[in-house]
Amino acid sequence: MFPTDDQFIFTYTTQKGELNQPLHPDYLNNKLDALSKKFGLPKITPHGLRHTFVSDLLNNGVDDLVVKSLVGHAETSEITRNVYGHVNPEVQKETVNHLEDYRQKTS
């Protein structure tokens, strides 16, 4: 990558060879819409992909600080857990079963 004053996540190189040019704001939405229609998938947005990424990390036990650093949230921010953290029903069942096993062993 060639550093410039502006660093974008999604960029392209123009036909003139200009590097790191930002995509049009609707580009990713349009591409995702086309894929959704082509394959009969539910509508998804770039933010929806980010949300799924963060939720999956949290649900798989990745430390909050690591997740925050990956998505650019401030270390003191509660956004990561409060907005992106969703309870996985399977994890709920496993937790209750684990507690039940623990109680049976200690009774």
TrEMBL record:
InterPro entries: DNA_brk_join_enz, Integrase-like_cat_sf, Integrase_catalytic. GO terms for molecular function: DNA binding. The keyword Calcium does not apply. GO terms for biological process: DNA integration; DNA recombination. Residues 1-97 form the Tyr recombinase domain. Pfam families: Phage_integrase (PF00589). Keywords: DNA recombination. The keyword Zinc-finger does not apply. This is Tyr recombinase domain-containing protein. It comes from Enterococcus canintestini. The lineage of its organism: Bacteria, Bacillati, Bacillota, Bacilli, Lactobacillales.
